Amino acid sequence: MKKTHVVLALFLAASASACASQTVAQNSLQIKTGGGVTGPFIRLSLLSSGELSVTRESMPFADTKSGLTTIEFKEHLDPTETVRLFQLAQSATDFSQGCGLVGHGTDARLSLQLSQERIDFECDGAIRWPTGPLTKSLVDSLNQHLPKKFQVK
Domain of life of the organism in this record (predicted)? Predict the structure, then answer.
């Protein structure tokens, strides 16, 4: 009987250790925009921890993976603002408004990972983006945290 208790205790200890070592998945918001051949191309990422990062690729050509000049910006947002931005992203159902009008216009993607749910919005061939008021509110709110060179347009 004592042997059973020891085995059970070891099993519970191993289970607790395994659970503690697993990485907790974060919610994430990702926006990618670009237009034409020369860009600029913007990749924005916001994690539920508040970590905001933006990568901008643009001319002139450089010795990088994409062949373009690449610069980065990072910022940490407070929890209240992070939650607000995730809520705005969830409500951006007008993301593709004004898209599909020209062959080589602005392209944009929004991916939102929330626990077990993934939401994706797309826009191809826009003359100007964003035009939908819900998406514009999201983009304007994000841009408040970014230097002009890194702003989503």
Answer: Bacteria
